[in-house]
């Protein structure tokens, strides 16, 4: 069997390098009407290399009827002959063929020929599985499993993908434990000795391949709803990208900010803050926002400006959620059974605060921290601007609120009402929610009322201008929230009035204005639920069941809170109130499944539906006797 001459081997290497250039560089310039032109050209070169290797290596030389001894001799000859200028290590020929099968698999996958891609990738894996894992082939072991894992995940076969990717992870861990030396990169099988990679470059490429393994596993675990595992793998992926300087700043920052939202849902605010601080620092590595003048001069600069501004605004929104959830979680811990601040619980939590902070700081040391020598200090400085512990009083809550409000302003600079209507409204809703959360900690009713007035001032204009035909869901949300805010303001004004010996006329007018405004917006919300022929549905959809019944219940209560000296008006208002209470009772009687969603409101409605008729009788009797 003839061996490859040095000139023949050089030709194969040149073809291989040309195929890489076509696939990775020139393919990006392919026209839209022929998007895979360079990939197809690369494929032809890879097929030629495979054919040559088969010809010289005796890949297909096993003739029918050969005995085991003859086959073994040929396999040994194959392993010895494919080399430039002499003998090869055992398994080198298989590795070279494996590389070509791997590249063909990637090529077919990238040109959307998944079955052919799977076949070549599995050829590579089966070929390599005959050999022990070594410094020469470990990268190929891992990269082939990465690719087949991605292919199966794309087909929705998540558990199959999981098996290949976890196998790649296990191979990496075993190799690092048993050997750990910088391994050969698959491309080096087709390089001249003088072109081989340095150990530093080998390490970088190998660790990059393993980082992809972890990244793909994070997606797999997310799809399998193993969220804790997914979060851990995503965190590790991001850290490794920083460590090996293998990341695009904008993409990395958005991924870190997205990960923060997972930590926030788990009430892990130290970790969430760390992710957001890192995101804010790393997004700065993408460069300054190009000036408007520069953007006008260049379409590329314009696109860069747009993308950078958008990413910064998205990270700002994640910061808003961090601040809002931190205050709201503290509120849930501190409120009593009627939703007011429990002073005893507040005092108890303040006593425990120091111990909890010490434990958290210890826990921090076990967290994989982001950063490098260039970014660590900046991330720490960013973290120090906002607390990660639950606020226990107004001043602590206000400090977090102000940070959130600054990010609201930053987000609104990009997400403006013209062009980003939905995003703009969601940011405004979050701003309103920040005021609502802060108001819980305020014990001065007048100041609390002013906070709710700020909410009205930002929500009501949008509510009036928004076209329900195009924004029905958002319109409903805003109508209900405005109604609820007026309702809370009414309760606060009544609480203030109860402390006065005699109600002044302007106080009465204010209370009645708030009451009627709340009724108006609850009614607008309820009207949006009606059928095209203006009838209220006999059975409400599950997503609007509770809001609708709560709206009916609160309108009933609101009518009973209107202050008037006119007995006829009193009778009219009480009658309206009774009608709404009875609606709640009747609806739940007809729809038994609704009872669980509105237990408290139903119980009070039943009680009021039995008491108000007596009150109406007394009012009517009193009016008759006067007349």
TrEMBL record:
GO cellular component: cytoskeleton
Keywords attached to this entry: Cytoplasm, Cytoskeleton
Swiss-Prot/TrEMBL GO biological process terms: central nervous system projection neuron axonogenesis; microtubule cytoskeleton organization; neuron projection maintenance
Pfam families, per the entry: KBP_C
InterPro entries referenced in this protein's UniProt entry, alphabetically: KBP, TPR-like_helical_dom_sf
Keyword Cytoplasm: yes
Entry's localization field: Cytoplasm, Cytoskeleton
Family: Belongs to the KIF-binding protein family.
Function: Activator of KIF1B plus-end-directed microtubule motor activity. Required for organization of axonal microtubules, and axonal outgrowth and maintenance during peripheral and central nervous system development.
Protein name: KIF-binding protein
Gene name, Swiss-Prot/TrEMBL: kifbp
């Amino acid at each position: 069997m003839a061996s490859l001459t040095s000139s023949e081997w050089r030709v194969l290497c040149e073809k291989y390098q040309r195929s890489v250039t076509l696939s990775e560089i020139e393919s990006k310039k392919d026209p839209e009407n022929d998007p895979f032109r360079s990939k197809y050209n690369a494929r032809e070169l890879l097929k030629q290399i495979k054919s040559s290797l088969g010809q010289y290596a005796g890949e297909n030389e096993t003739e029918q009827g050969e005995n085991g001894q003859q086959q073994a001799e040929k396999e040994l000859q194959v392993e010895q002959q494919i080399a430039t200028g002499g003998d090869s290590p055992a398994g080198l020929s298989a590795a070279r063929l494996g590389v070509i099968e791997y590249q063909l698999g990637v090529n077919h996958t990238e040109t959307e020929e998944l079955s052919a891609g799977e076949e070549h990738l599995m050829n590579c894996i089966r070929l390599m599985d005959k050999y022990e894992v070594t410094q020469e082939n470990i990268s190929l072991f891992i990269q082939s499993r990465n690719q087949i894992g991605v292919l199966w995940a794309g087909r929705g076969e998540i558990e199959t993908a999981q098996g290949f990717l976890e196998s790649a992870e296990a191979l990496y861990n075993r190799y690092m434990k048993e050997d750990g030396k910088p391994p050969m990169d698959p491309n080096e099988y087709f390089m001249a000795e003088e072109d081989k990679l340095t150990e530093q470059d080998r390490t970088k490429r190998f660790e990059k391949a393993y980082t992809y393994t972890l990244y793909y596993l994070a997606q797999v675990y997310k799809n399998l709803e193993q969220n804790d595992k997914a979060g851990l793998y995503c965190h590790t992926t991001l850290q490794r990208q920083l460590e090996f300087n293998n990341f695009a700043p904008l993409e990395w920052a958005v991924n870190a900010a997205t990960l923060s939202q997972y930590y926030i849902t788990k009430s892990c605010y130290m970790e969430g803050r760390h992710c957001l601080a890192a995101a804010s620092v790393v997004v700065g590595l993408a460069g300054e926002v190009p000036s408007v003048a520069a953007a006008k001069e260049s379409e590329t600069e314009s696109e860069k400006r747009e993308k950078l501004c958008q990413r910064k605004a998205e990270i700002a929104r994640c910061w808003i959620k961090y601040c809002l959830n931190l205050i709201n979680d503290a509120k849930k811990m501190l409120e009593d059974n009627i939703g007011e601040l429990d002073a005893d619980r507040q005092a108890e939590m303040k006593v425990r605060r120091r111990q909890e902070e010490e434990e958290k700081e210890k826990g921090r040391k076990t967290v994989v921290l982001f950063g490098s020598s260039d970014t660590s200090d900046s991330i720490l400085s960013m973290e120090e601007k906002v607390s990660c512990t639950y606020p226990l009083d107004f001043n602590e809550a206000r400090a977090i609120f102000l940070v959130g409000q600054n990010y609201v302003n930053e987000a609104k600079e990009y997400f403006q009402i013209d062009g980003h209507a939905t995003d703009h409204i969601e940011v405004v809703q979050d701003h309103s929610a920040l005021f609502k959360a802060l108001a819980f900690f305020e014990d001065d009713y007048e100041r609390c009322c002013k906070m709710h007035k700020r909410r009205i001032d930002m929500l009501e204009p949008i509510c009036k201008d928004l076209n329900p035909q195009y924004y029905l869901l958002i319109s409903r949300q805003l109508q209900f929230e405005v109604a609820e805010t007026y309702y809370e303001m009414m309760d606060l004004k009544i609480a203030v009035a109860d402390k006065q010996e005699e109600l002044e006329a302007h106080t009465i007018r204010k209370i009645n204005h708030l009451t009627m405004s709340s009724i108006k917006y609850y009614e607008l919300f309820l009207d949006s639920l009606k059928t095209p022929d203006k009838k209220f549905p006999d059975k409400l959809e599950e997503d609007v069941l509770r809001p609708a019944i709560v709206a009916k219940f609160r309108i009933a209560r609101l009518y009973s809170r209107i202050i008037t000296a006119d007995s006829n008006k009193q009778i009219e208002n009480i009658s309206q109130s009774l009608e709404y209470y009875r609606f709640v009772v009747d609806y739940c009687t007809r729809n038994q499944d609704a009872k669980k969603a509105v237990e408290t409101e139903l119980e009070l409605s039943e009680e009021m539906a039995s008491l108000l008729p007596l009150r109406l009788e007394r009012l009517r009797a009193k009016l008759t006797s006067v007349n």
